[in-house]
Amino acid sequence: MTIRVFCARHIITMNPSNPEATHVAVRDGMILGVGSLADVAGWGDYELDESFRDHVIVPGFVEAHAHAMEGAMALVPYLGFFDRPMPDGSVAKGIKSYAALIERLRAIDAELADPDEPIIARGFDPIYFADTEPRLTRGHLDAVSSTRPIFLYHASGHLATANTAMLQQNGVTADLKTAGLGRDANGELDGELREPPAMSLCKSGYRAVMRMNMDERAIWNFGRCARNAGITTTADLGGIVILAPGSLPMWQRIANDPDFPARVVMYNFPAMPGDAADFDAVADRFVALRDQQSDKLRFAGVKFILDGSIQGWTALLNQPGYFTGDDHGQLLTVPEQFKDWLAPFHRRGVHAHLHCNGNKTQDLAIETIEALLRTDAWLDHRHTITHAQLTTQAQLKKMARLGICANFFANHLWYWGDQHYERTVGPERANGLEPCASALREGVALSIHSDAGVTPLGQLHTMWCAVNRVTPKGRVLGPAEKISAFEALHAVTLGAAYQMHLDHEIGSLEAGKRADFAVLEEDPLQVAPARIREIGVWGTVLGGVAQPAATRLSER
Amino acid sequence: MNTVAVPLTVIGGYLGAGKTTLLNHLLRHNDGRRLALIINDFGAINIDATLIERRDEQRIDLTNGCICCGMSEGFDEAVDALLAGTPRPDHIVVEASGVADVFSVAQYGHRPGLLLDGVLVVADAETVRARASDKYVATTVRRQLEAADLIVLNKIDLLDPTAVASVAHWLETQLPGVRILPATRCEVPASVLLGAHAQRINPVAARHIDAAHHPHYVSFLIESGQPCSMAQATRFMASLPDWVLRAKGYVQLDDGRTLLLQQVGRRCSLDVATLATTDATQVVLIGLHHGGERTSILKALHCLPGAELVTPEPAS
Fold first, then answer.
1. What is the pLDDT of residues A353-373, one digit of tens each?
2. ipTM surpassing 0.90, yes or no?
3. Any CB–CB contact under 8 A between A246 and chain B?
């Protein structure tokens, strides 16, 4: 077996016993040793790889809450407010006004040869235009084309806007009584489609969007996006392997392909969110699924969704509730049954990641785990509350005692921080969003995430959010909850690996672990905190094999 | 493609209220309808094995309908597949999950080819009030009740009559005008739950349910050979008495058009019918028997020229 020794300007190992190094020796995808060249030379004959001698190596980033849907964002035009990195290394520019939106759509229209081919686009989010533009209606999109059907699927997944041609193509007329059909003052359809019953009336648009999430190209793109961001292991936190029989062979075919540039850790849904099932039988299937694992595709645990989102006003909040707007709290579990839903997994050693955006559902998650632990001891369960955005100090104390991990949605501080401050929860609670510093102080195992494709994959950006806590309007939300760059780096490497029970394999650079590195242009612990998100990513090393980011590939 | 719209009924209600009991009851007493049930979990359904023609993980075909489970393909596609199948079901019944927003689910009933029949919400007479103020589920439970066209107040056998009256009164205060069907084991006639059979507007035999404290249901047929004006038809619908749980039928207009009249609980509609199966005015009323129904119908009856009340068939 060949030994390859990588050298770098600087290596941050995240191994507290041996925090810094210049060389790492790798054999057969595993790390033999980390240190100076002299420290690692003794393993035997080696090839010295100096490709990264001007770079900084850190452990491959680990993302404990993302979705393969991230890869679907690139299958159709992206029309979101913020710039977004694409799997090919390009950046789709954010759209800041309706004029720019229409201009972009006109350009797409002009490029399409087939006059009947619909335009289906994603990423639009009306919350960023609430102060500057009227509600988007079919009139805006008719200005692009009166003949080509257009379907704009919003970032929230709850809304879409169609033009007149799209409505006509699908026979959607004003006499339909579906409640989610937006109307003008005269009762005519205005092209806004709220929630799936209304959106699905425009079959030619809606079904295309739904198919994208099961598209093989989306999964490939997911891997490429991860690699471009320096991520070597990413969760797919909401797999449908149990629900959709065709999903497993597709994932195995793609993730196990040697060219697929990331490891994927799946957390599957045991049933459709909110639905009951025979969870004992389902949990047996989760255990059996472990026989199908590989080093590229793991089935680590189960995912439950307990509520909606804060910016959609569908998360369940404790008193005093939402700051402005109506509470549309959407409970997606049956509280009296939730212990019985979770117990079959807990008892089989299948840990859970529980989506709680609101602190009321988070109470339920904590109470449920506490009740389970009274009867079924599992000291090292690592059940994780994910998003957990409004976690209170009292909740952190309980979580620490009970061994519950927190995976905060740090990207919200940037993407919706101003909206939370002004609209959803108000200044005080906005300052307490994603309380990373408090979690560390209380001893809660911490990670931070992007929830890609809700926001883009990119652990440097996510670190930057937790370290700086700034918003697009220049606010700093709760400076007391800032964490250091080192703590943030820990959260997106070992911290995330710990929450997936994989910290013995990945998350730090030390002997016996997988040779998974993120290769960076600059040292994230040395640059000014405000510049962390600007650090260039060369790519990754995955199991000892270099995986250049797409921008590097095109340079070759 | 000008076929009769298939009615879709949504059954909602919080955990343990009796949704599955209601589905099992409907499977046994379907009044000859081809029912298509869309449910959450096969395990809870009692199906007579002799009725099963074929089954796989997602679907069971019965001699008199089918049961579908697992909505991972999308609810819209599941419903469209039922409409495209042969034979088409006479009625689609959707079981919403215990925490579902039934109002939202019901919106699928407005898809082309479907007709939203109604939203039935099953409430557990013993626990519904406590649930409606519970920390976690109050909003969910209240939203379900608010979306109900008819509330099946189930498990009344577990309460004394005063307590039943008290919870019914509470529901009426919370939801003015709501129609409540007190029941044990969800035993309510299919004609009340699903309406008069779509294919035949006839006096529907009201079922007599034993046990002294259970309600009786009555049905009446109103017929007229004369057309009426739109104003008269509107006035007729508005004048239907409070005890009417369901009304369904056709009203002939003097301009040659036919209206489809539908009332389910608090919700009523009067739409131009594209495919009428009759050229006379015929409306079936179904309601809770309390005495004095005939007298209270007279006001509505007088709105329609030439209208007569046909004697109900005796309860069976």
1. 999 999 999 999 999 999 999
2. no
3. no
